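@channel sequence for tomorrow's demo:
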Amino acid sequence: MKILYLPNEYSQQRQREKKRWIYPVHMAMEATYFRRVGHHVVWDKPQDADVVISNVGRIPFDLLPAPDRILTNAFDKKYQYNGNFKHRPGTYIQSASGCWWGKCEFCVEKGEPYVVRDVNAVYDEILECKKLGFREVFDDSATFPTGKWLDDLLSKPSPKIPISCNMRMVDVDYERMKAWGFRMVLFGIESANQDTLDKINKGVKIEDVSNIVKAWKSGLEPHGAFMFGYPWESDQDALNTLHLAHFLLRKGTLKTAQASFYQPSDGINNPSHRKYVKKIYDVAWHPEFWINKLRDLRSWDDVVYLYRQVREALR
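structure tokens (generated this afternoon):
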């Protein structure tokens, strides 16, 4: 059977509002599976086919192999133009099917089972990415596995390639992660208001931001994700979140940040708060922000990465 995979700008996104070309690693794993069992698989080249696929979920996650990155064109430049890679070319892996919390109201994977791949398979994939010539790896599991799985991974020799991942605001051994090779850890902060965190079922307290501070003090480069547009929030509530984002960025606790607009399944939000999404970049008017940015420059990759951040903010 001839199977055509047509990824799009939503294929690897977990929010209904976000649109960006992220290497669709889950789709690529599935495409590789079908090829291995004997099907003719075509990737991102529109043509006649028996089946056309633009989303995933047909094969249990724990049966999927690491993706064939040549078949699925992982070096395509469109997959490089996002802020998750300081060192290019970079690529994505996925250690788990989603998030072990799995209850956030805005997530398209809400309620899905959390399946984790074998730690040895993930480690071998990281080494293979390095061998192929990638200079950085980002694990795009909605939440990176913790507990014994993480301990087992960190017990292996460092692959000596920068690794980044999504993480909840939990207390783990960030110093050990940094020593092993982790660079950036992306935290979904979402809001500075506890009432909002409770309503979206985030499962954290605002005080858990202290774990981001811990990650920063360990030498990691925390990235914060914030959200605006909650229908129950006042302007002051939105400003509380904006001020928290600016404070963490000014102090250098967050090295980078992003903001998105709340898009729940029922479509109800506060359109007047969309203006705050871009205001996160107003932190650039604070001299303290630039002092800490300049202090962080250690290599040419750091300089180029900073330039890319500035260019993104000006768009």
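heads up for whoever presents: The chain has a mean pLDDT of 94.
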